[in-house]
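Below: protein 1.
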Amino acid sequence: MSGHSKWHNIQNKKGKADAKRANAFTKLARYISVAAREGGGDPAYNASLKAAIEKAKAENMPNDNIERAIKKGTGELDGAVYEEIMYEGYGALGVALLVTCLTDNRNRTAADVRHAFDKCGGNLGTTGSVSFMFDRKGVIAIERDDSIDEDELTMAAIDLGAEDFESNDEGFEITTSPEDFNSVRDGLQEAGYKFAMAELSFIPQNTVSLTNEEDIKKINRLIDMLEDNDDVQDVYHNWDEVEVE
């Protein structure tokens, strides 16, 4: 896989989600509701809903919460109507950030996101100011295990339509096009592989290294402020965190 290894960022993302479980459930419920509203409440016929449910189960979200979120999305239960918004901006030393949101109040979310950027020395940009620096890809991460034959996994992923495959000390990273993500994920799952992460993501084309401690604190604070916001679903950036260890 060209570019830097994403495994460090994957582990950081998972660790933060584990530490903020209640906050994660709120975000996941919105994700499920929107998927159900747009494609129906049956995951067998709604790939987006299936992906949302699998992500929720990976975070140990209770089934009752999942069912309630689906019913809110399909209109069986009353609930807020959420819209998807993406904000783009820059943090310390030009680190590019994409912030994806699901909100029932666009003005509130815009104000909160702008406040986070301003408070942490960043700048909120206009639509298109950052997104051109990222590619939309499916990312599947599998932790290394003695039972996994790397050659078999490589061939299985390629046969299913994966674009790229990378092996490192921690595990395996499989990259797909957005169109092939569901078939690659489902095929590997049916073959018995368990995922550390499997989702559509924005992958930076190039990364930025930070060496100044103050800059690192600022970008960490900005990412944390954004991720603490219930309206924010994901924060993508081109900071190569591996470089600061």
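Below: protein 2.
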Amino acid sequence: MTQTSQPTALVTGAGRGLGLALARALLSDGWQVVVDARRAEHLPADLPGAVAVPGDVTDPLHREALVAAVDVLGRLDLLIHNASELGPSPLPALAGVPLDAVRHVFETNVVAPLALTQLLLPQLRAARGTVLAISSDAAVEAYPGWGIYGSSKAALDQLAAVLAAEEPTLTVHAVDPGDMRTEMHQAAFPGEDISDRPLPETVVPALLALVARGTATPRVRASDVAVVA
């Protein structure tokens, strides 16, 4: 294990979208960053300087590999649960959603973040670190077609709230970043023009401001976080 004074972050789902934007910003700010993505070819080119560990967060062996990468760097100050699964596209009504798809969404969006947090709690406690769970307005609003994804994010919100109550030395946030122009959002609206949605990079300053603040909050929307230039 290498001891370092550099802050260290682990960002899941960093091959595209918000995860990629967050990882780039953290690297630019001088952080050590461990990243993963299911599509390995994205990571080395898009994130020079990051420790890339390709794989799927639902795979226990991959989660162990992420922990090993963190151990090599010697600390963990920030864990960002960004990897998510939308489910079938077009979004199905609950009456007809395949149950295997439900299980996969919950495995990715709920079980995997909890499992990874469990493994990394010793490092997070030692650093009095921060856990950032990327949520959605679908966790609290009833949108037709969004029942599976939304309920998985509602479960993630509750996990974050309970973790904050159980781990008072940690700072835990569940954050709704708002609609963004991402591949996942396009999959939710196949064939529609989503060019009016903001790019993920526009959300990053609010999320990093929340991390820098260092105080726990309840579930929060990125749009409500004041960013001081």
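The CA atoms of residues 53 and 66 lie 7 Å apart.
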